[in-house]
Design goal:
The complex is a heterodimer of chains A (112) and B (116). Chain A contains no helices and 11 strands. Chain A has 112 residues and is mainly β. In chain A, the strands form 2 sheets. In chain A, strands 2, 4, 5, 9, 10 and 11 form a 6-stranded mixed sheet that branches. Chain A has a 5-stranded antiparallel sheet with strand order 1-3-8-7-6, with no helix packed on it. In chain A, a hairpin with a 2-residue loop joins β6 (55-58) and β7. The model of chain A has no long low-confidence stretch (mean pLDDT 95). Chain B contains no helices and 11 strands. In chain B, the strands form 2 sheets. In chain B, strands 2, 4, 5, 6, 9, 10 and 11 form a 7-stranded mixed sheet that branches. The chains are: A mainly beta (112), B mainly beta (116). The A-B interface holds A 30-31, 33, 40-45, 48, 50, 88, 92, 97-100, 102-105 and B 4, 31, 42-45, 48, 50, 55-56, 91, 93, 98-110.
Chain lengths: 112, 116
């Protein structure tokens, strides 16, 4: 079974601060996605990274896929209250690209 | 704008009762997934269908859960009999790129189930 551990589990910061969320596994993934989930809603896809070492930027969010395709990070610059939510990484396993294996989640709270 | 819809949004029931959750996938998506989310276990895949055919239900307790797609616009997840440990948020998701490295899934708003 492939597991994805996220850290930290909880993060509470003030507006304007920077933060990084990590997603780690001992297994190799075909690709990796990051989702954000707000209360009462389903997860929404932010990005897909496919190539080892790939870096993608989405405004103030920077996503990186590890060289060995086992881990990923999400960095937020100058956090805003609108960034508050549950961040989930999800790996697409090499043995079955139909599936998503979701990480344990990082709950981010940004205070004004 | 296209989105996955789920009904009901909230369901409170008593142990032993039958529960049916419904999902309308995005038109044109050929793969439908059912997930369960709890604080302890996170988001877990229960089952999924492609072109209405069940492909994998290994994440589902077989004795009480069943999932079907009567037609391309409706997926159902049934629990009979329900138990308190089934309390969770159940999500349906659909996609058209499953099976590729760009397996993007669009999630519905979920059904929050409470079994007393």
């Amino acid at each position: 079974t492939q597991l994805l551990e996220q850290s930290p589990q909880f993060l509470s910061i003030q507006e304007g601060e920077n933060l990084t969320v990590y997603c780690n596994s001992s297994s190799v993934f075909s690709s990796l996605q990051w989702y954000r989930q707000e209360p009462g809603e389903g997860p929404v896809l932010l990005v897909t990274v496919v190539t080892g070492g790939e870096v993608k930027k989405l405004k103030r969010l920077t996503f990186q896929f590890g060289d060995a395709r086992k881990d990923s990070s999400l960095h937020i610059t100058a956090a805003q209250t609108g960034d508050t939510g549950l961040y989930l990484c999800a790996g697409i396993p090499t043995y079955n690209t139909d599936k998503l294996i979701f990480g344990t989640g990082t709950r981010l709270q940004v205070f004004p | 704008d296209a989105r996955v819809t789920q009904t009901p949004r909230d369901k409170v029931t008593e142990m032993g009762q039958e529960v049916t959750m419904r999902c309308q996938p995005i038109l044109g998506h050929n793969t439908v997934f059912w997930y369960r989310q709890t604080m302890m276990q996170g988001l877990e895949l229960l089952a999924y269908f492609r072109n209405r055919a069940p492909l994998d239900d290994s994440g589902m307790p077989k004795d009480r859960f069943s999932a079907e797609m009567p037609d391309a616009t409706l997926a159902t997840l049934k629990i009979q009999p329900s138990e308190p440990r089934d309390s969770a948020v159940y999500f349906c998701a659909s996609g058209s790129l499953a099976g590729s490295s760009y397996n993007e899934q669009f999630f519905g708003p979920g059904t929050r189930l409470t079994v007393l």
